[in-house]
């Protein structure tokens, strides 16, 4: 990463890529072994920024569907804007019964279901009479719509920053999707603008994006097709 000319050390542009990925937001010491196992094949190898960047999505979750409660589909991922209503905690002597929260819009009512939940946390996350954006898989129980353990519970401000097309990454036991995604976002923020090292005519002929833009198309995909193996961004990274 460093070259020496006489007594002068020169930092090469590639240095940020091979620097340690630990210490950033979402990557504490406890995650180092998990990330090493997932990204480099061994808990003994510390993950680098480039390892996180090249841990590419295998698919996406499309959260653009935003129906009213009356128009909810039979299944699939939805994002709904609701007003939080009544909390119904389970009996103290029967924790197998879920904690239910009723939420509504002008067209109907939706149940939010949580198993083995902490009531104090849910009261803070979903305070009655407040508006929240809920995203998750819809299902039906006795003819009533519900979302069990929503993927996202957000205020209007938080929702304005949520990507509606969310990449899905391979995981390992003990590592959650949210923590890995946050680690990858931190790595992407450290990615420098690197010069193109191929013949400029070749990527131009194939309509490939630049190095940084190709990674952005993978980790912040604008459309569902962006992370497919045949996308221009994937080809650009394959030839990088």
Q: Ranges with pLDDT <50 over ≥5 residues?
A: 1-7
The outline comes out as globular
SSE topology string: EEHHHEEEEHEEEHEHHHH
Distance between the termini: 18 Å
Q: In terms of structural class, how would the helical and strand content be classed? A: alpha+beta
Overall residue-averaged pLDDT value: 89
- Number of strand segments: 10
**Quaternary class:** single chain
Strands in their spatial order, largest beta sheet: 4-5-6-8-7
Rg for CA atoms: 22 Å
Q: How many distinct helices?
A: 9
Measured by DSSP, the beta-strand proportion falls in 25-35%
Question: What level of helicity do the residues show?
Answer: 25-40%
Largest sheet: number of strands, sense, barrel closure: 5 strands, mixed, barrel
In brief, what are we looking at here?
The protein is built from 9 helices and 10 strands. The chain is α+β, with helices and mostly antiparallel strands.
Explain what the structure shows.
Helix 8 (211-219) packs across helix 9. The protein has helices at residues 15-18, 32-40, 49-53, 119-125, 156-159, 177-189, 201-206, 211-219, 232-238, and strands at residues 2-5, 8-11, 59-62, 77-88, 99-105, 108-114, 131-141, 144-148, 152-154, 165-168. Strand 5 (99-105) and strand 6 form a beta hairpin. The strands form 3 sheets. The chain has a 5-stranded mixed barrel with strand order 4-5-6-8-7. With 240 residues, it is an alpha+beta fold. Residues 1-7 have low confidence and may be disordered.
